[in-house]
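Narrative of activities, Objective 1.

The group set out to show that a structural description can be obtained from nothing but a protein's sequence at a throughput compatible with the screening campaign. Below is one input-output pair from the validation batch, recorded exactly as produced.
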Amino acid sequence: MPVSKLQKLILVMDKEFPILEYLYIAPPTKHDTTIVFPQTFRAPQLRQLILINLATSIGSPLIATAAGLVTLALDYIHPSAYFSPHELLVQLSLMPQLETLGITFHSPSRGRALETQLSETPITQHVTLPHLRWFAFGGDNAYLEALLPHVTTSLLERIQIIFFNRLSFSAPCLLQFMGTTERLRFSSLSVSLLGAVVVVRALPREGDKVDAFYMHVNCQSLDWQVACAAQIFDTIGSAFSSVKRLHLQFGERESSSEGDDVIDVDLTDWRVLLGSFSNVETLLIDDGLIKDLSLSLRRDDGEPPLDLLPRLKELVYSASGDADDAFTSFIRAREVAGHSVSLVRR
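Output recorded for this entry:
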């Protein structure tokens, strides 16, 4: 319903709802109108709370009194309702039963001002969430890095992250956070370079349908995407040391009439990315990435670097044109070194 009518409905929710367990509120469009809940609203049995496109304070009675929540999702939070990591932690400390937590902001609005603010504002609250299994975040990297050192959990099984445009990437606290649980283990991973985003998906076992790790970073050009992916795995790559199957995917992108779609990617970035997967046994490469990947598997003197993908057993590639010789030198060098690799055209 329209926001104005939604507010009228919420204003009459000024009493206790003793058996309410699930509450989902999502205005039809993003807006900057603050939805105010009556101070007398109570839902002592509330277990699932999902708010989307709302400019609602983290201190709202709706949130502040929901101590028994197992699911809390605050998605597309408007800038006018921004709350600091410390304010979020204070509220989370009252929700020890949480199993699913999702926090996504509407858009980046603070930039370096946010980083300065976070560095100058001490966080004294620490939270232990012993039942948390699914954590999702969308926003600025600096915010997440400030938040995670103050959260302890041991049963985490799934992480989903969306970052806004970034020229540089560093996430040591994310790496440490992922290492606090033994349930986050991966055997299969894909890096998708799509039209305007980099998407990373990791599965516990090949064939699983649900991602155990998902990351989405907004990036426009292919060179930026590869550089971003290289930075991601240069920072948190050790969390994926068990990956045995790596798929590098290439998505459709708009062509430019001025020829800007022909972009040179720094081969060093490809090598940094591949160097993060020392236990990969199967590498799959989509058409569109063959030229760059075949060049990155050679040193400047033309010889293949044997330290990249040392356990590789199978290289599978998709090609619509003539690409049969692209990996010839790499395959021969591995044979000479006594580590043969099967080459499969798909």
